[in-house]
Structures are given as C-alpha cells and as structure tokens.
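Anyone able to model this chain together with (R)-mevalonate?
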Amino acid sequence: MLEVIKGFSKLSKTAKIQWLADTHFNNPENAINILKQYWNNNTELQKLHDEFSENTISNYYFPFGVAPNFLINGKIYSIPMAIEESSVVAAAAKTASFWMNKGGFKAEVISTKKIGHVHFIYNGSESKLNAFFEANKNIFYTDVHHIIKNMEARGGGISDIRIKNKTDLEPGYYQLEANFETVDSMGANFINSCLEQFADTLQNQIVLDGSFTKQEKDIQIVMSILSNFTPECIVRSEVSCKVEDLVDGTGLPADEFADKFARAVRIAEKEPYRATTHNKGIMNGVDSVIIATGNDFRAVEAAAHTYASKDGQYTSLSHAEVKDGVFKFWIEMPMAVGTVGGLTGLHPLVKLAMEMLGNPNAEELMMIAATVGLAQNFGALRSLTTTGIQKGHMKMHLLNILNQLEATDAEKVYFVDIFKNKTATHSSVVEEFKKYREDNNYDK
Ligand code: MEV
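re: yes, here you go
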C-alpha cells in the first residue's frame, strides 16, 4: 500500500518524478523516461506549460488537426481541432466540403448574457429585504466600480442585479442574482470577483440598516459564484438546401435520405438514450474547437447538457425539418467562450489557432464552435442513417490498431490498402495481421 506523502507540492519537479517512479512503477527508469520524453527542449516553453497548472511533471499531447473549407456566414475558415478520437476531424472536413457549394453555414449569436449568484441564508421578512436591496442598489454598483470599470470601457459590465426568493428549495435560501456582459472574455474571474464584492456589500450594509432585527442581520453567505448554465448566452447555426441537392453518394435517393435523417433527429429529440449519444457527437466537434482555442470545455459541456434538459427532459441540441422540398438542419446551444484572457494570450498553440481563425472575437468563436458541432452531428447522422458509423470510423481507427500491433510503416501501407474497401473490425485486423506475419515469417 502507498504511504501518504506530505509536502509533495513543495518538491522540485525532478524529486516529484523520482518519488512517483520509486513508489508507483515496477520499472522506475522506464516511467521517468516516458515522462521526460514529453518534455519540451525549449526550457522557456516548458516552464510556461509547467506554470499553467500545479504539480506538473510532463505534458499530455493531443493531436492538433485542421478541418478546412468551412463556409460560415460567407467567410471561409480552416478550423483548428484538438481531439484524440479518430474520424472526428475527417467527418468535420467532409461535412464542410459538402455544404460549401450549398451556401455553407449561417450562424448568429442570439444573446450573450451571463449569470452569477450570491447564495445566502436570511431568516426574516422578505419585503424588508427587498426594500433594503432597492434602497441600497447604488451602493452595490458603486462597490464593484473598481472591478467593472475596465470591462465597461470595453462595452461590458453588469446589466442587472436582483434578489430571488428560493425558500421553497431550502429554509431561508435567497440569491442575489446578477447579469453580466463580458464581451470577448469568458469572464469567470470577473464575474466571481464582482459576486464576492456583492456578498461583502450585502453583509456590510445589512448590519447598518436599522429596520432589521438582530436575527435578520445575521445573514449567512453560503457562496458566491457564476453559473455555468448560460441559457441567455446562446448561439445558433444552420444549414439548408433543396432536398434534391442532398444526394451525397451514400446510395439513398435524396428524399429518402432527408426523411430518414430528420427521423433520426426526431428520435434524439424524444429519446434520452439516443439524445445523449447524439449530443456527444455534437460535443466532439464543439469541444475540439474549444480545446484548440484554449477555452474551458468543461464549462461548455456543463451548459450544453443543462440546456438540453431545460424543459424537463434531456433532448437533442440540434433539430431538422423537411418542408416544401427544403431540408433544414440547425443547432441552438449555450456557449460561454473568450478570445481574450485565460490561456488565449499565453499558450503559443492557442495563439496560433486563434490566428488561423483570423483572430475572432468571442461572438465569432461561438458561431464557429457551434457550427463545427452541427457539422459533426450532420456527418455522424449521415453515416448512421446510410452506411453505418463503423465503416468510416474503423478506417480512421485502423492506424491505432496497427500501432498497437507495432506494425512497420510498410505493413501500415499494406493494411490500409487491404481495408480500403472492407469494414475493419478490431478482430479482423488482428487476425489478418497475424496471418500476414506468419506467411511472411516475420521475426522481430
Ligand atoms: C462517436 O464519438 C459519436 C457518435 O456516436 C455520435 C452519434 O451517434 O450521433 C457517432
């Protein structure tokens, strides 16, 4: 059994690695070599990465790919995507090309409001609390002025603050709810700083107010934090074309394909098991852009899934319609992202990704990420409703299997060719590979 280590964070990087190697691995030297193999030779760059987080001992690589030819609102983008799953980038690129000559994607930002709360407990008269809040609102705004003045200069700030009675959920539970506009920053630090100041102001002002009893003045601030649920920070992206233009070489007549596709979306709208996988496919696209651009994919994920269940049942983030000979497919989802602050100005690859996208502002990035989600969903549904997903997926995954089998470069070329026209499964590749080596008397 492992012994507890005290002061791990205070150890040097080398000492941390040595301790881990000695206590966790059968072959410590091998563990150290693997960790060091991922260090960057550029010590400045390595230091930068080490300082992004804590207890850093190495770097974790993700493939950084590009899906070109995305036509969004009349502008062509090459989209950086950081993702490990085979076939996601290929599917995005294929879908982008498919829609390129059909007018591309039309995207719009519907709203950009973010929300945060001071959660507090107050045992007293609600009307007194509301009257106090209205009378002191200016003080709340004045007290955060030093935090919001730069944001206001950039066009953002706080648009509203209010008290909400939540006592039906928990005795004495109230919220001070605030709405924020954070322009091109994701805004988490800004929002949380404002909320913590609001909590102080609430506590400080209430004790000065003679209308409250001693018990009423004794409020408890439970916590002050932004909400990652952003139902009013919403982006929409859409594609449409005549049904007859929907022929894409999958073998199905266009009208049959359109109907089957729309039915698959309806199933995801109504059936949570399918909705979860459907939305997972959307997030393959969204997350890969969010990660490549240094944004917080956990926040985007959390918001997406809460939004998908906002009406009481988990449902699809995308929708489709076939009407009057026109096929329409669209997505509407929350998206809290930033193009300034956080990693965006620090991580060299993130900066490069931003430049590749033409240095978008936050609204443009919202539209790009949602569009890639929609494209991913289109690609997945096209395969699922026609050839099946495994054909394309396994073609891309083939190299992973061959790498697991330690195939040589020549063997990889040979097997990619062999499986060009037949669906690979893990066992069929392993079987054929073994046979090939036996037949060729391969000796390692
Ligand atoms: C796999 O990562 C994503 C899919 O399962 C999405 C879907 O089923 O729609 C292919």
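The chain has four domains: 8-50, 66-109+234-387, 114-226, 392-439.
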